[in-house]
Write a structure and sequence with these properties.
By secondary structure, the chain is α+β, with helices and mostly antiparallel strands. It has a six-stranded antiparallel beta sheet with strand order 5-1-2-3-4-6.
């Protein structure tokens, strides 16, 4: 007999919770503040990178994006709660901890920051301008892409649907904010909701919307599902 695809889709949805963060994931380690030692400088050969290049770091469950600014610097958007509490650039520029990251997702706050290539990629392989093939004639000049990234530096809102790291880089390099990862996530949600055989799957969708879309804890389940039914109708 054919297996019910809904539990598999629900499982995929839970895994994709980490996709919503759109950043490199560091393991939670007891007694160390949840952080691991970052890669040493010089782990990546940046000689072939050009200012304005779109850097893409594939992960198991998601892809993280940034714009190369030259001199081993990458601008990228990361969820971060700290800019909501301080303007101290020295504190904000420190490597984002897991706590700052998670609280930023919940509070829907982020920052466009500059990190070294090593901190940006965090041990992952880097693809350069891999998305250009999807936009063809829409690619802006490299200097224009870099300048757009630099103009957006600082605190910003975070949203899975409207403002994540992929939206940031596609706006900078192609002139229009787009997120293919978000589209895939929404299609998974639609598939789960359309199959009314699984109450558990629907509950998971509701929980995911609370955690990832920033809905208030007091929101009722019918309210939670309104945006998803609108997606279905579309």
């Amino acid at each position: 007999t054919m297996k019910n695809p809904v539990p598999q889709a629900a499982s995929l949805l839970l895994e994709k919770l980490m996709l919503l963060v759109h950043v490199h994931v560091r393991p939670f380690l007891a007694g160390s503040g949840g952080e691991t030692t970052p890669p040493a400088p010089g782990d990546y050969d940046t000689s072939s990178f050009k200012r304005g290049d779109l850097l893409e770091v594939p992960r198991t469950l998601f892809v993280h994006f940034g714009i190369y600014l030259g001199e081993n610097r990458v601008a990228h958007l990361m969820p971060d709660i700290l800019p909501s509490f301080t303007d101290d650039l020295q504190q904000i520029q420190q490597v984002v901890t897991n706590k700052r990251l998670i609280l930023g997702v919940i509070a829907r706050t982020a920052s466009v920051r500059v990190d070294t290539v090593e901190d940006f990629a965090y041990g992952g392989s880097i693809l350069v301008n891999h998305m250009d093939r999807l936009f063809e004639d829409q690619v802006l000049g490299s200097e224009e892409a870099a300048r757009r990234a630099e103009k957006l530096m600082g605190a910003t809102a975070y949203s899975l649907l409207w403002n994540n790291c992929e939206h940031f880089v596609t706006y900078c390099r192609y002139g229009a904010p787009v997120s293919f990862q978000t589209d895939k996530f929404c299609e998974t949600v639609k598939m789960i909701i359309r199959d009314q055989r699984s109450v558990l799957a629907s509950m998971l969708v509701g929980l995911a919307s609370i955690v990832c879309l920033g809905l208030a804890p007091s929101t009722t389940l019918p309210t939670i599902f309104i945006p998803f039914f609108l997606w279905m109708a579309g």
